[in-house]
Specification:
single chain; three-stranded antiparallel β-sheet; globular
């Protein structure tokens, strides 16, 4: 992955691109802004869904899955790694 297009709401990698949904885009933007750091589920819930109930934690897992599939579709060298019981971080290929 080389770019997150803020205007089009898409990930660009090489010659390919994939449009992200609003929540996917917000999550990817947060992961990129915290490159090299772990983003906790609590961070995602607070920044994207707002303070809510525990059901939002499952939403984080679902949207992470969507993002991983889109990164694979682009054959991106960037991966979203799980830090068990802590959160998620980007790994590989970031400029």
């Amino acid at each position: 992955m080389r770019n997150l297009d803020l205007k089009k709401g898409e990930i660009i990698c090489g010659t390919g691109s994939v449009v992200l949904g609003r929540k996917e885009f917000q999550m990817m933007e947060l992961l990129i802004s915290k490159a090299g750091q772990i983003v906790t589920k609590e961070d995602f819930v607070k920044k994207i869904w707002g303070d809510g109930d525990d059901s939002e934690y499952n939403n984080v897992e679902v949207y992470i899955s969507f993002l991983r599939k889109k990164l694979q579709l682009l054959h991106s060298c960037v991966q979203i790694k799980t830090k068990r019981s802590i959160g998620y971080c980007l790994d590989g290929g970031m400029p």
